[in-house]
Specification:
The complex is a heterotrimer of chains A (315), B (239) and C (360). By secondary structure, chain A is an all-alpha fold. Chain A is built from twelve helices and two strands, in the order ααααβαααααβααα. Chain A is globular and about 60 Å long. Chain A starts with a helix and ends in an 11-residue tail after the last helix. Chain B has 239 residues and is α/β, with parallel strands linked by helices. Chain B has a domain at 2-88 and 157-232: Rossmann fold (3-Layer(aba) Sandwich). Chain B has ten helices and ten strands. Chain B has helices at residues 45-53, 75-80, 98-105, 114-123, 125-128, 140-152, 170-185, 197-203, 221-226, 228-235, and strands at residues 5-16, 19-30, 34-38, 57-65, 68-69, 83-86, 158-162, 190-193, 206-211, 214-220. Chain B has a six-stranded mixed beta sheet, with helices on both faces. A four-stranded antiparallel beta sheet of chain B has the order 2-1-4-5, with helices on one face. Chain B is globular and about 45 Å long. Chain B starts with a strand and ends with a helix. The mean pLDDT of chain B is 85. Chain C has helices at residues 2-34, 42-57, 72-94, 99-119, 121-124, 143-146, 151-154, 157-166, 172-196, 198-208, 210-215, 220-246, 260-271, 276-307, 313-338. With 360 residues, chain C is mainly alpha-helical. The longest helix of chain C is centred in the first third of the chain and has 33 residues, at 2-34. Chain C is 71% helix and 0% strand. Chain C has a domain at 11-256. In chain C, α1 (2-34) crosses α13 (260-271) and α2 runs parallel beside α4 (99-119). Residues 349-360 of chain C have low confidence and may be disordered. The chains are: A mainly alpha (315), B alpha/beta (239), C mainly alpha (360). At the A-C interface, α4, α8, α9, α10 and α12 of A face α4, α13 and α15 of C.
Chain lengths: 315, 239, 360
Amino acid sequence: MWESFWFEFINFYFIPGLVLGCIYALGAIGITLTFGILRFANFAHGEIMMTSSYLTWEFVLVASSFGLILHPIIGAIPASICAIILALIVDRLFYKPFRNSPTIMIVIASFGMMLIIRSMVQVIWGPNQITFVKGIAKPNSIIKDFTSSIDIMLLIPNKHIFILLGTIIIMLIFNYLLSSTKIGKGMRAVSDNPNLAEVSGINVENIVKATWVVGGFCAAAAGVFLAMDTQFIESTMGFRMLLPMFAAAILGGIGRPFGAVAGGLIIGLAEELSAYPWLGDGPVISPGYKSGVAFSIMVVMLIFRPSGLFRGRVF
Amino acid sequence: MNSDKILSISNLIAGYGETEILHNVSIEVHKNEIVSIIGPNGAGKSTILKAILGTLDIKSGEIFLLEKKITGIKPSDIVRKGVGYVPQTDNVFVSLSVHENLEMGAWTIETNLKEKFEELYNLFPDLKDKRNQLAGQLSGGQRQMVAMAKALILNAEVLLLDEPTAGLSPKYRGEIFATIQRINKSGLPVLMVEQNAKQALQISHRGYVLVDGSNRYTGTGQDLSSDPDVARMFLGSRG
Amino acid sequence: MEIFLGYFLYAMSLLTVGGIYALLALGLNVQWGFAGLFNAGVAGFAAIGAYTYALLTTAKSQFHFGGLELPLIVGDITAMIFAGIVATIIGIICIRLRADYLAIATIGIAEIIKLILKNETDITNGPRGINKIPRTWEHFTEERFYSNFPMNFISNPKGWEVFFDSIPKWWWQPFFACTILIVVIIIYFLLEKLRVSPWGRMMTAIRENEKAAAAAGKNVTKRRIEAFILGAVIMGLAGAFLGQHLRLIEPTQTFDPSKMTFLVWVMLIAGGSGNNKGAILGAFLIWFVWSSSELVTNGVIEILATMFDSVDISILKNRAGFIRMLFIGLLLQFILQRFPKGILPEKRPAISGKSQKYAG
């Protein structure tokens, strides 16, 4: 018998937590890659996510003016290509000059990039919220009927199915990349020891470019998934995600991509589950403070175990 | 073209930023030779190898590989031209497997390497059954072997070794020196920086003594071993 | 005559806000220039200062905690104390973190502060903010002040009312601006004295070569925390002044890190980080650029509108703020690449130290 506790818990807290976790996970991958290979915290990462969702919306809009109704995931393809190009251009113009400078220079530069990209989006599309997908997402009827026939009931809207499946597929591709391709192994090598990589003859600049491509792609996916989930886009959505994504990367261990995934899932779940009325009537943490959950986890990690769960780099 | 000179450094002045470490250093490595560079700590021995690789600032002087100038070229290009390098520490990718480490060494090579890998596993039999283990889990001596194998995969013209026996037990030390001789006999010249001056000179054809960043003595391995000044300075207290 | 008055008042407001930012920059310079700490949460400390001042000095209100109606000086000082307390807590927890970790942590803390201000509506009136914050000098014109000591000593309320009606409404602006400038100058001199004091020389030693300093027995962590707290205290004061200048503060827009924290960093880098004079110069310069860019972009929009009918003025004007932010951002990148030491470079540069070897 599917008690009302489980029904409520799984459908309204756990699964949304998982979905949010997937979004954080995808974003955190890019952050941990940049942290591990380029050795700095990229504050502009959230803005790449945000720009991707705006570009997706724009592509879908333009297509519809030609009579084509595109699913956001299709629109996301040209959008992610643009996002990757943007990341590469930003690296070439604004980060590359600081490759051999103290970390602080590139951190300030990325801080500035965060504002430049966000302002560009605000100039082009305006600061207000734009509806990404209209209407209320109804639970998928196949799953609903199937699971209620076996006495549990899962209400999962299609958008969540896309996000969960999409994340799994991206993870599998990513795993293959890192473990079985030359460039993937090169990325692991540079993340492990950039000086040794250089004197081994590895073309580190190519690895850096590959990092932006992979990181940019994951960021774009995260951005589109976020837009699909919340059904609207606005110019601060990237910044809102930035702290939880940093927290996820630190939680997993810097330079450990799958640690970042684990970190993202944990933080997504923690955020959603913190709103559950565990003790009687009200939620443990008032919803307004939800974003504080990720931050607190991060601070705790930095104090007690800065190398993260999976022992990444500590700088 | 005098094909005897594989590597030559002439009148090198180099260092990091403002600091000058090497003052007018000249070194040559000929075909089939093992050349050792010995000297007190801080003499700049490791710096010479780094200068060859292009990882620090060269203020004046030239470096030639096979009579062609390689001064100032990017490290990855120098490696590509055939300079194999084994750093003293941090010389393996600890989170990659042994085999993946070798693959990284082979980054610049396009062709199929299956035979080359087999050759190397035969040269370092200890590593054969460890090929899928993470390099970080190996002992110091085994890691050193991975580091050397990684540098050898390149079909290098010359092999640069930075204190290959540093921190190793006597058993491994002997093995490493024996391996170096084997490698050299197969036709690869070796330029070696060593703290274990006595053992190094024993297997070297020639040696250079570096003090405070300048050439002090040079001669055959045997001559240097039996030179009383050299012996007094370096061979007395150390192995 | 009207035009001159307009320019005069504009200049007053430039000096006022420039001065407030100069204080923020001086505070940040203590943290960055003296101690090498990357504080990305400047806006948070300013917010603490502003809210503390507001809550202590505003009149009783059903919307928020307060009604204490304390003298303004008390408000200023308590703002500084509160900012200092929060900085102490944060400092003890976070000070050992490396530059970008500290940046992440301080941004997070600024966000948490914002969240608290937004959510604890009983105390702070949440998103709607606090208004009618009494402004130094202007407060004399408020009934609450002139009906009480010491003003009632000089004249009765009616007399004051008549007096204030007779003088121009803007009379307080130059006084307010001067007060802030005097505070800037005082703090500047105090900081300069501090810089050459034994404490200051120790901070320089730590910044140049931390390992050597630690080996010589200096308590690096403690000194850094002290610098962090001192910087935060100055920022708190700046926040209090900002609250007075704006008269209305609320948690999200007023203390937007993109504007405030970022602008202060641009000011410090442009002026010359590590350098108190540079901080002040950078603040006034960048504020002037930022402020006048508003006039410039408005002017350009007007011209474009008269040239092209299709241009929708209202949208452009709306987006003008973002265009300005875009340019300030690009300006920062330009300065960072070409003039990283700023206009007035310190004799011993702040952005120095071991450079880490990077990939590529």
